[in-house]
C-alpha cells in the first residue's frame, strides 16, 4: 500500500501496523469536529482502519499567531480507537447538523442523513453513532472509500 511513500512515512505506517497488530486497509486525512453533547473541536489528522478498528490521531500544528506573541501553547495529542463492532450507524449529515449535535441542540439519534439537493450543496460530515450512546463527527476527504472500508 505504501510502495511510493518516502522513508519517514513508510516508517510511520509500519509502526502503526506493529502497534495495532495488523495491516492498514484504509486511511485518509480527516478533521475531528467533536463528540455529541461536548465542545466543538477542529483537529486535523489521520483516520485509518486496521483489524476492524478505526483510529484517529492528530498532529501538532504550528500556530504562527502564538509564535508572534511569543506564547507557547502546550500541545496535547489526541488519539483514540473506534471498534467497528461498537458502531451503531455511520451516516452523512450536514456540517451544521453535526455542529448542532456536538453543541447539544440536537440529539444524535435525531439527525437526518443528507440526500437529494442537500447532499450536493451542503458540506458533508460523517456521523459515527456508537452503540454506547454518543456520536463522533468527522470531515473526511475520501468519502466513497471510507464508506466502502467500513461497510459490513
Sheet having the most strands: 7 strands, antiparallel
How helix-rich are the residues, as a percent range?
25-40%
Per DSSP E runs of 2 or more residues, the count of β-strands stands at 7
Evaluate the radius of gyration: 17 Å
Oligomer: single chain
Order of helices and strands: HEEEHEEHHEEH
Mean pLDDT: 87
Tell me about this structure.
The chain is an alpha+beta fold. Helices cover 27% and strands 34% of the residues. The protein is built from five helices and seven strands; from the N terminus they run αβββαββααββα. It has helices spanning 7-20, 64-68, 95-102, 116-121, 143-150, and strands spanning 24-35, 43-50, 53-58, 79-83, 87-94, 124-130, 135-140. Strand 1 and strand 2 form a beta hairpin. The longest helix is centred in the first third of the chain and has 14 residues, at 7-20. It starts with 6 loop residues before the first helix and ends with a helix.
Which key phrases capture this entry?
seven-stranded antiparallel beta sheet, single chain, about 150 residues, about 35% strand, globular, about 25% helix, alpha+beta, 7 strands
Q: What is the gist of this entry?
A:
The chain has 152 residues and is of the alpha+beta class. 27% of the residues lie in helices and 34% in strands. It contains five helices and seven strands, in the order αβββαββααββα.
Amino acid at each position: 500500500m505504501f510502495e511510493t511513500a518516502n522513508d519517514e512515512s513508510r516508517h510511520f505506517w509500519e509502526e502503526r501496523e506493529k502497534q495495532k497488530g495488523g495491516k492498514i486497509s484504509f486511511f485518509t486525512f480527516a478533521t475531528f469536529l467533536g463528540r455529541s453533547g461536548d465542545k466543538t473541536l477542529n483537529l486535523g489528522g489521520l483516520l485509518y482502519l486496521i483489524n476492524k478498528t478505526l483510529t484517529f490521531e492528530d498532529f501538532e500544528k504550528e500556530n504562527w499567531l502564538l509564535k508572534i506573541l511569543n506564547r507557547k501553547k502546550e500541545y496535547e495529542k489526541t488519539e483514540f480507537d473506534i471498534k467497528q463492532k461498537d458502531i451503531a450507524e455511520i451516516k452523512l449529515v450536514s456540517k451544521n447538523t453535526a455542529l448542532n449535535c456536538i453543541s447539544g441542540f440536537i440529539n444524535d439519534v435525531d439527525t437526518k442523513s443528507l440526500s437529494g439537493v442537500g447532499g450536493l450543496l451542503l458540506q458533508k460530515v460523517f456521523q459515527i453513532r456508537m452503540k454506547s450512546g454518543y456520536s463522533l463527527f468527522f470531515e473526511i476527504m475520501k468519502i466513497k472509500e471510507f464508506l466502502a472500508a467500513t461497510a459490513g
